[in-house]
Every structure is written in C-alpha cells, then in structure tokens.
Design a protein that fits this description.
By secondary structure, this protein is an alpha/beta fold. The protein is 37% helix and 13% strand. Helix 3 (106-117) links the parallel strand 3 (93-96) and strand 4 (122-125).
Length: 353
C-alpha cells in the first residue's frame, strides 16, 4: 500500500524523466498538457476514433507490400506495408500495433505520417493473423509471441540493419517488443525503441479491464477479437464454439490464447509473457511512455520497476494522456510521437559522437 501511494502521488512535472537517468534522459522532452476538448482519460483514449475524418492519408508516400514467411512449419506469413519518405535517409522505423489493431489503426497511421515527414522509411507490421495477414495465418499473435517479431527483424537486417532499426510499439505490441528486447540483449540490429502504453503486467491489466467502468471497451475488444479469430483458418470446432461464447478479454485468454499456445491457463500466460520481468535485461536504449490515467493499464504496473537499475530505460510516466492518446495543447502531433522523435534524435547524436 505504501508503494502504491508513492507511485500515485502527483509530481511537479509528471512528464519529466527521473533526474539520474544519465545521458539518455538529457533529451529535451516537451511537457504534456491535454488539449481541449480532449480532457480526461476516456476522451484522450477515444479521440482518434471520434475524429475519424482527421485520420492522415498516406497516399503521398509510395507503399510496398512485404511478406515475411515464418519458419516454424505452419506456412504462416506476416504482411507489412513499407512506406518511403519523399526526402531523407533516416533509419527504418518499425511500428507494432496493439490488440485487435493492424497496419491501418489510427495511431499507426498518425505515427507513420510523423516519421515519414521526418525522412524515415516506415514499416507497418501486421502481427500474426492481424489485418491482411489474417487469411495467411493459422496461428495467432499474443502479448508474448516474440519469435515472430524476431523472425521479421532477422529478415529486415540484411537490407535495413545499418545504422540500426528503430522500433515503436503500442499497447500489446509494446509489451511484445519489450519482452523481445529483454530476451535478446544486443543481438538484434536495433538502435533504439519507444514503448507507448504497454501492459507490462498482463494480470493487473486484465483485472483493470474487468472493472465495470470499462464495460464499453471490453464489449468493443471482445467483438473485434471474436470477429477476427472466427474468420481465421485453422480453428477446430471446439475452439470456434469456445471463442464464440466469450464475453470478456480474460475469458478469451483463458479459452483460446492459453490452450492454443501451451500455457496452463490465462494466469500462466500473463505471468510468462508480461514484459515487466524482462525490463532489467534490456540493453537497447528504450523510452517508456505511460499515462497515470490510462483507463486500462494501472500505473501500479510500472511502480514495481527499479528504473534506476537499468540506464537503458527512460520512463516518461505522465499524469494524463489516456491509452495511446496524448493529445496535447502545443501541437496536433501526438505527444508520444514528439517525445519518441526527440529520444531517437538523442540516440543518433550519441552514436555519432
């Protein structure tokens, strides 16, 4: 209880990193203040869905469809879209979507436009069975399926490995990314990463999602999970019936994700795939962005991390922003994108020196 109280205590500058983070935290991160009328956790979270007419068009940047075969005997292939900037030669930025997301999720499109304008090629990856990859995959992504991401990065390395890849993960995709970083150390050609609203403690996140205040979100997630999973090839009749009957995300994890992937139950899945336990082993500069008022992921998840023990981690744990929201006053560009840009610029300057 004392730890929770300390974590939830307000800070003078809630968007500032800890003071002793070393050279990585010396980047001039802008402060975050919510932009009217997107005040509060839910409006910050839902703004992009409410304002669909504002979604950026990526038609100005040439797109190329890439396929990444998985060498695990399934015959599955992951699809991605590669967009190239009109000018600039920055490192490739790989964007990883969250639960029920894909290459065309609003936050992925906004971030893609941001990085393309800065001169970076952008790869919008569809995780296994997501978006246009759905019909090509018999298996399905989950929060800990890092072998898929590792396979994609290995295939990208010969062409894009120099000067290093930049990874940006959102929500479930961010958890997967952080877990991979902890598993692989410096063995992959990754220059730096940014994690946005990652559910680094899956059990705590599942419990938060089950609260009555989140019933609308749960209903939306479950609808999309069922629609996507039931439309996928390779489901047994028993799996089809089990998925069709679920009413919560936890139930989906219990009856489908856990047994399908060899976990004893959903809590075994959560325990083995939560990124928090992998954070101490990360050896790649990583910006960790999370909002205290995230309606789905409790800040308590981040309070058990010893940030001072790993100088590769730079936490920006703000008081507001919702879940992958961060719509601020000073710019129409999401705060998490601007902070990621500042951080990646800082890493690039350190590498050059």
């Amino acid at each position: 209880m004392q730890m929770d109280a300390a974590i939830d205590a307000p800070r003078s500058d809630p968007s500032a990193p800890r003071s002793d983070s070393g050279p990585l935290a010396e980047a001039p991160f802008p402060p975050f203040r919510p932009r009217f009328p997107w005040i509060g956790a839910d409006l910050q979270t839902l703004r992009n869905r409410i304002r669909r007419t504002d979604w950026p068009s990526l038609g100005a940047w040439p797109g190329e469809r890439l396929r990444f075969p998985m060498a695990d005997g399934t015959g599955d292939e992951l699809l991605a879209l590669l967009n190239r900037p009109l000018t600039g030669t920055g490192p490739l930025v790989v964007l990883l979507h969250g639960l029920t997301g894909c290459e065309d999720s609003s936050y992925i499109r906004y971030s893609a436009a941001f990085w393309l304008k800065r001169g970076h090629p952008v790869l919008r990856l569809n995780l296994r069975g997501a978006g246009p990859s759905r019909g090509l995959c018999r298996e399905h992504y989950h929060a800990g399926r890092t072998e898929d991401l590792r396979a994609v990065l290995d295939q990208l390395a010969p062409r894009w490995g120099e000067p290093g890849l930049l990874l940006v993960g959102y929500s479930l995709g961010a958890n997967m990314m952080l877990k991979l970083l902890g598993e692989t150390g410096t063995r992959l050609p990754i220059l730096a990463t940014a994690s946005i609203s990652a559910p680094i403690d899956l059990s705590l996140t599942s419990a938060r999602m089950d609260r009555l205040r989140n019933w609308v979100y749960v209903r939306w997630f479950v609808h999309n999970l069922k629609a996507g999973t039931l439309a996928s090839p390779g489901l047994s009749e028993a799996e089809h019936c089990a998925v069709a009957a679920v009413r919560t995300v936890r139930a989906f994890d219990q009856v489908f994700v856990a047994p399908r992937n060899g976990f004893a139950d959903e809590e075994d899945y959560y325990a083995k795939c939560s990124a928090a336990q992998f954070l101490p082993h990360i050896r790649v500069p990583s910006l960790i962005i999370h909002a205290r008022n995230d309606p789905w992921i409790p800040l308590r998840s981040y309070g058990y991390v010893d940030w001072d023990a790993n100088q590769c981690l730079v936490p920006l744990l703000g008081s507001a922003g919702g879940h992958v929201g961060f719509h601020g006053r000073s710019s129409r560009t999401a705060w998490h994108d601007r902070c990621s840009g500042v951080f990646f610029d800082r890493i690039s300057s350190l590498v050059r020196t």
